[in-house]
Write a sequence for this structure.
């Protein structure tokens, strides 16, 4: 058997790497057609999911308690088959817990799938709203560089490139003159594009967010490559939401402390006022925890916010025998409510800190 | 006009994802690795956008996040290949390329990283040493061992398939 030379191995290595580059740039249309493979955070469980799991757990319990009885006839009569069958063994408890966990997982997966599907439908709707420049021809998805960068977990996106014979300026004029119906122009950006290389002029439109997905965005971008026809891209994206898991962590709260941080108008970047206090009134605490439970989940934000001295509300919820839960409502950039269930626990985000702030302002006067 | 963090990562993310694929061997782990990288980069965003070679710094974060994350990833089920991955590569890569990819995946993480940086990123040993935090002689010996392993494992391939 001949031994490979260094040159031959190096050549084969380069060819192998090149052959697998396409893994980094899958066709987004195909992604949308199939179940998306999004990075997902560890799931937690909402009241609805807990309720679903409780049903499952009850069914499991009924089966165990009922012995050989049909499940339906044994429900509600756990003691009828004698003392040995009324007490769940450790093994049975473990089995019930396992079944409950599985039921929660299935319910969470179903909820996530529904939100994912809604996000996919919305993205396709936005793409369909984009104006089609006369004479535009669809071109295959660009490979190797113009991927939409994912700022949020769970992002769903779709894009389509078109080639037109008109100039880049004329193409942009047409796009400006035909805004997508029902969408709001949010920004006009200049974006450096890797491939094809050049500067994109991009119009960004926004649609309304829902409890299933975050603010959907539609970008219409025009590129004049060094040679060939003008290209423009229609790109839509949103992020599906996971369920709000906060209620799992707010049972049995007996006290809460707060810090209200507001920047000084004269020097917002570095100076601020802080108002601190404690609350033990159960009604007030319940008002705040309910407000938190009613917020929609928000995918994690990976972008960048300049330091402009943003307002924040910080809450710490005390639970006997449990880790304290801290909540930070960021009222500037990014607008998000971050929840940390305990020391070292995974943080998760909720949307709409201003709603929480409005509720909070009815309890403590700032 | 200064470059913002968003501009920087938007420009570099596609290239980082490609390198991540070469390091991890599959798209799912590569996307996880890219997210980890960008999260770490975000924590140091102020310095990142003002430094002279932010792209090199991002690559360094990526490679080291990969090396540090391997132990954690080893505890969970590993994605060998997704349907999208297989479709993206094509129905059947040439045997030599398929075998090389398989053997690359089986290499120790650090050895694979050195090969990716040397033969995919085309970096000189000096830069690879800086990224990995070791000496150039260590880079050379690691590459030597990796190539020797590949040579040995590819010896089973019929000559006409090379």
């Amino acid at each position: 058997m001949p031994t490979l030379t260094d040159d031959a191995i190096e050549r084969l290595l380069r060819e192998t790497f090149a052959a697998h580059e396409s893994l980094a740039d899958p066709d987004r249309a195909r992604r949308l057609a199939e179940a998306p493979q999004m990075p997902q955070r560890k799931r937690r469980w909402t009241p609805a999911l807990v309720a679903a799991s409780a049903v499952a757990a009850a069914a499991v319990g009924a089966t165990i308690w009922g012995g050989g009885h049909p499940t339906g006839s044994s429900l509600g009569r756990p003691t009828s088959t004698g003392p040995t069958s009324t007490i769940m063994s450790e093994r049975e408890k473990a089995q019930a817990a396992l079944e409950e966990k599985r039921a929660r997982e299935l319910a969470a997966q179903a909820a996530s799938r529904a939100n994912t599907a809604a996000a996919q439908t919305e993205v396709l709707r936005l793409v369909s709203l984009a104006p089609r420049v006369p004479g535009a021809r669809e071109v295959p998805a660009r490979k190797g560089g113009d991927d939409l960068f994912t700022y949020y977990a769970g992002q769903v996106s779709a894009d389509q490139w078109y080639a037109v014979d008109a100039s880049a300026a004329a193409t942009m004029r047409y796009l400006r003159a035909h805004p997508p119906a029902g969408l709001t122009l949010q920004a006009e950006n200049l974006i450096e594009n890797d491939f094809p290389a050049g500067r994109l002029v991009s119009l960004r439109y926004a649609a309304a967010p829902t409890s299933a997905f975050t603010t959907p965005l539609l970008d219409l971008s025009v590129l004049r490559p060094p040679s060939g026809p003008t290209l423009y891209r229609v790109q839509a994206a949103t992020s599906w939401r996971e369920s709000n898991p906060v209620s799992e962590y707010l049972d049995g709260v007996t006290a809460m402390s707060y810090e209200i941080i507001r920047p000084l108008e004269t020097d917002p970047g570095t100076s601020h006022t802080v108002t601190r206090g404690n609350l033990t009134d159960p009604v007030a605490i319940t008002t705040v925890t309910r407000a938190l439970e009613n917020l929609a989940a928000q995918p994690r934000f990976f972008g960048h916010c300049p330091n402009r001295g943003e307002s924040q509300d910080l809450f710490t919820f005390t639970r006997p025998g449990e880790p304290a839960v801290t909540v930070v409502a960021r009222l500037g950039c990014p607008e998000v409510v971050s929840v940390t269930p305990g020391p070292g626990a995974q943080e998760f985000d909720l949307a709409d800190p201003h709603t929480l702030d409005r509720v909070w302002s009815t309890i403590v006067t700032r | 006009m200064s470059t913002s963090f968003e501009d920087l990562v938007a420009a570099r993310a596609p290239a980082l994802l490609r390198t991540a694929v070469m390091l991890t061997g599959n798209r799912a782990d590569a996307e996880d690795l890219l997210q980890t990288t960008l999260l770490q980069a975000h924590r140091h965003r102020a310095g990142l956008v003002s430094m002279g070679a932010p792209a090199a710094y991002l690559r360094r974060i990526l490679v080291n996040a990969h090396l540090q994350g391997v132990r954690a990833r080893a505890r969970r089920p590993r994605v060998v290949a997704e349907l999208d991955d297989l479709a993206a590569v094509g129905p059947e890569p040439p045997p030599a390329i398929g075998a090389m990819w398989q053997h690359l995946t089986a290499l120790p993480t650090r050895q694979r990283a050195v090969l990716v940086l040397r033969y995919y990123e085309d970096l000189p040993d000096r830069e690879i040493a800086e990224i990995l935090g070791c000496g150039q002689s260590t880079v050379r010996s690691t590459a030597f061992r990796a190539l020797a392993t590949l040579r040995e494992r590819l010896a089973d391939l019929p000559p006409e398939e090379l």
User: Anything to note?
Assistant: Residues 246-361 of chain A form one domain. Chain A touches chain B at residues 1-4, 6, 8-10, 12-17, 19-26, 30-31, 34, 37, 39, 144-147, 149-151, 153, 191-192, 194-195, 302-304 (CB under 8 Å). The first strand of chain A starts at residue 137 and ends at 139.
